[in-house]
Amino acid sequence: MKKKVTFILRLTAAIVTISAILIFSPWQEALYSLSPLPATVQEQVDDAVDQGIDGIIVYIQKAENAPELYASGWHDREALRPASPNALFKIASIGKLYKASATAKLVASGELALDETLAHYLPDLAARIAYADEITLRMLVQHRSGIPNFTDHKDFDWATQSLDALDMVLDSPADFKPDSDYRYSNTNYLLLGKIMDSVLGYDHTQYIQAQILDPLNLTQTFFSVNDVDLDRLMSGYHIGHETDFKTLEQGYVATAQDVGIFLRALNDGTLFTDTEQALYSSLYEYEHTGWVLGHSSRAHYFKDIDTVVIQFVNTTGDDTIILTKIIYDRIIKILKKRS
Q1: pTM, whole model, 2 decimals?
Q2: Beta-strand (E) ranges in 135-190?
Q3: Domain residue spans in the chain?
Q4: What is the per-residue pLDDT for 6?
Q5: Known Pfam families for this protein (predicted)?
Q6: N or C: which end of the chain has fewer CB within 10 A?
Q7: Was domain 39-338 assigned CATH 3.40.710.10?
């Protein structure tokens, strides 16, 4: 009887999963997600390009094993340069993990306080941000501030660098009262950077360099496209446009291996002291995705197989968010089958 119930539950779960894929995904992606898995990660990476991706990089590191690096497609399709697993890439919102880690370290050292307010740290902005005297540092880190997301503003353009992102949301009504809800907002981390700059008395990226990147020997992580050799930076494409968007200034740049090393240290605790670890575990996530024009990324740790998997894809637009998630999930299934 128990075996029969278990079988029925598994069958029901499978039907629900397949139905959700078929209902909510475009039919091509739905069919692809259900197609047979290839035998190897490299075959899956190559197949991703066959699905319309310009270029892809995958980093895998299991337990104490040496990392595995894969690439397929184009690093630069105009120059016909093949993708390299050691290329630099814009990691977008994965950079929030670095900022959140720096925040935990500064709180542990007493330089920041999680329950201190935005108005206290940035008094010049207090009158221009709703509830600034109630929004705490903790709420900024956890996306519970209610401050509008500047990338959702009607005038925001991913392809334009002349916009003042913060100015777009100043004097705007809050999305909700502080700590009454959750809504992801890039503005939170823009302000978090400004708070760290103010408290430190210098650019917070210098602190991240000294306290996070240097101890982990992350020599291939940078804070701007202006800090790197652009030939090493993977091109970025958006469906329907011929433009290569890689020269746009869109935040952190790193190799997949550097991101993988950081994510391993974040998850196994070696990035922190015990006090810092306790603080971080109450604050933010241990994995992240990233998206900017032409570049999408995924960084996750899978405890059940003790494996870090980083995926970079240099094609955005249309249904690529769904497609790249399906590709990533298929890679994870391959890894779990071989574990």
Answers
A1: 0.91
A2: none
A3: 1-35, 39-338
A4: 44
A5: Beta-lactamase
A6: N
A7: yes
